[in-house]
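Same chain as my last thread, 334 residues:
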Amino acid sequence: MERSIYTLGIETSCDETAIAILRNETDILANIVYSQAGLHAKYGGVVPEIASRNHLRKLPYLVKEGLEHAKIKFSDLSLVAATYGPGLVGPLLVGLSAAKGIACGSGAAFLGVNHLEGHIFSHRLAYPTVKPPFLVLIVSGGHTSLVEVKRYGEYQPIGATRDDAAGEVLDKVGKMLGLDYPAGKEIDKLAIAGDQSTIRFPRPMLGDTGFDFSFSGLKTATAYYLRENPTFKVEDVAASFLAAVIDVLVDKTLKAARRYKLTQIAVVGGVAANSLLRRRLTAHGKRFGIQPFFPPLDLCTDNGAMIAATAVFRYIHLNEQHDPSLEPAPSLEF
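reply #2:
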């Protein structure tokens, strides 16, 4: 019987300290996330220095807890992986340095992971039998992208945001509405109680023939509306604003799927948890015979399991590992 491969995955690209232990390619033994949202809420967004210091404090304890939960020791690890980009350079450096040290001390191989590819592998963890080719909508606080997955490890970017990402604009508008950071979940709740037909916000680039996104104009339009209508009802603003964001995401994603003749869509990243996006994309996809797949909520936000899954795939199937000299790449792309 072949020996199991145990992978420790570390994710510290922004404000969540996350680790996971994976057995072989899809068996999650531990998946732990420590959110720093409360620490950054009073600033209305992530403060890199605070994030870095808290990663440094929490990471050793999370690794220890993960190993205990998985019932393995450092010496059982075959592979240690960490996000090396894109992200905030300080937080990336903390996770990357920890992974290198653990790999060196345990004798395991080391591999740096592209955070964007990690999100794609959250789909593989949730739906291991759904094989490429398929379209991926990566929609999070830092990224809004459409990518054709020809096969795992081979990607063709189709479109990306030209300014604010969808999750980023949700947080910025949430701040305008007086909501705590991060605001996406609260806007989702408020929208359910509001009337999305109250305000007709613009749908940026909706009629464009390409697949890029732009949400900064929508953010500005919302700011003007709030300034000119001081007695606004927060539920109606949330519903109308969210409807505009989701209309753009759904329309461009389905057009891209049809253009590239893809019948499966993986939706990944923090905004994949949004209930309106899930309902709309599922309903409209049916009209064209297109099936969207959404990971469970614990795999939507940044997590260590997606990093471990990406790493072990590349380690086993592509024979990859990295030298300890690998540096953080804050602006990394596909």
